[in-house]
Amino acid sequence: RCPFWRPFMGVACLLFLPYFSCGCSRTIAPSVQSEPEQPTVADRSRKGIDPNGGSLNGNADNLLLDGESAEFIRVLEETLRRTGRLDHHQFQRLFDLQERYRDVDQIQRLMAQALVVRQDWDGLVEHYLSLQADKRDHDQLAGAFIKSHRYSEAWDYLSEIVGKDGTSPDRQWLLAVAAVNSDRESEAKQLLDELTSSESSEQRLADIHLLKGQLHYRQTNWQEAESHFRLALAHLPDDIGLHVNLGQALRHLRRDEEAAFFENRAQQLRQVADEQDATRRLMAALSNNLERAWKEKDFPRCMQIISQMEPHADSSIRRVLDEYRREIARTTTP
User: Fold this and answer.
1) pTM, full prediction
2) Among the residues of the chain, which ranges form H helices?
């Protein structure tokens, strides 16, 4: 005669067998990771993902994002918009996501933005070159070539793009920078003359005079170089490199007293820039501490950090600090 509990035991085995088998498979082969199961339409809608493949925040992406990744992207976009920074862990996770979701334009654009924030110009070049041509920001890629001092590559790339898509004032400017710094003197002169005749912005005209001064300096036309450097200096009075260049041109003209003045001014500006850079690093560290304290709901610590940041804060940062204050007051008010 069968004990009364034996049928129930058989049912229990059937119910719990999948759990035991899953546990055994993980124990036997811990190094093998199975592909995550794709969410159903109902699961995707519940997680905030468009069942047709796009995110519900209006970005029509063609590849599925799990709910946690979509939320991370949303928070990261907001963080970059609000603070213009991201920490190492955020960048590393974004890097992993962009490797996994190569066809999601939103993630690839965010990766480019993160590399610009980090001023990783070589990284930005490699990022864009890894994408299909129709998904690249050609002007930003050319600018990254220039910022990483790869002027010949910038010239070759821009020449190809202009041949396909046409030119623009911004592309002419990038071509001129690449030409001056890759010893293409005739092309540089032609581009700069065209820009001078068509440009009306004072800032851009100052940059054009700076480039013309550099071109004449390379050609040992010291008097012409001095003239263009002085025209640029009227609009760029705090440019360190411009003061150095003008001082060197004056040295070649044997006007040592004037040269010393501009060289000393360049040294003063460099000291100010170093102090500002130290302040930026301090503010970045304090900002990270503030975000950490906020996540931990350590509001007294938040207020202490805010008071440390205030003496160095500009108007935009002050607005952010005021938002923190209001939220702290709202949260702690009984």
Assistant:
1) 0.63
2) 6-28, 41-46, 67-83, 88-100, 105-117, 121-129, 138-147, 151-165, 169-181, 185-198, 202-218, 222-233, 240-252, 256-295, 299-309, 315-332
